[in-house]
Design brief:
By secondary structure, the chain is of the alpha/beta class. It has a single domain, classed as Class I glutamine amidotransferase (GATase) domain (Rossmann fold), CATH 3.40.50. It has five helices and 13 strands. The strands form three sheets. A seven-stranded mixed sheet has the order 2-1-3-4-13-12-11. The mean pLDDT is about 95.
Length: about 200
């Protein structure tokens, strides 16, 4: 199994560490590599788009000529895990809580609608215990300038919800082999979400 982590910005090496741990815990043989060039997309079994700044990641991916081939690969079935900024990049519809439409570069492979900075800025960061379909027990979600998944159309579906300021919003969604989370599972030390995604790839 060969898993890539898009390596321009954000929690790149946190994901590398968690994926290596998850592979070992599952007993899967595999390697995890940081992807920055188009040629590195070849023969991947999955790709992680980490948290960070979604516009910056998209612009750098386009500048490095990775965005278009990555978009084609994911839309053709390459499994993708997008966390926080990565969830924004995977979404078909994106707007910012303050500025509205962003016009930013997207992969737009999942039929979800995401609102950037939904929970506020850096100082409004928080953690919450989440129930996630497919996981036993609660998962500690770390929310840092996080988006919210406010809608999903089939075949996408929301698999985790959060009650926040009187509203119930989605914070994780799946669509086939793609998984998007509004939070940062790579910052928890809990490998269960990475393992859930890797098992999906292994099928």
């Amino acid at each position: 199994m060969r898993i890539g982590v898009l390596g321009y910005q954000g929690g790149v090496y946190e994901h590398v560490y968690m994926l290596r741990r998850a592979l070992e815990e599952l007993g899967y043989t595999g390697e995890v590599l940081v992807v920055k060039k188009p040629g590195q997309l070849e023969s991947l079994d999955g790709i992680v788009i980490p948290g960070g700044e979604s516009t910056t990641i998209g612009i750098l991916a386009r500048r490095m000529k990775v965005l278009e081939p990555l978009r084609d690969a994911i839309r053709s079935g390459l499994p993708a895990l997008g966390t926080c900024a990565g969830a924004i990049i995977l979404a078909e519809k994106v707007r910012d809580r303050v500025v509205g439409e962003t016009g930013q570069p997207l992969i737009a492979a999942m039929r979800i609608e995401v609102v950037r900075n939904y929970f506020g800025r850096q100082r409004e960061s928080f953690e919450a215990d989440l129930e996630i379909d497919g996981l036993e027990g609660r998962f500690r979600g770390v929310f840092i300038r996080s988006p919210a998944i406010i809608d999903a159309e089939p075949p996408a579906r929301i698999i985790s919800w959060l009650d926040h300021d009187g509203e119930r919003v989605g914070v994780a969604a799946v669509q086939g082999p793609h998984l998007a989370t509004a939070f940062h599972p790579e910052l928890t030390g809990d490998t269960r979400l990475h393992k859930m995604w890797l098992r999906q790839i292994k099928r």
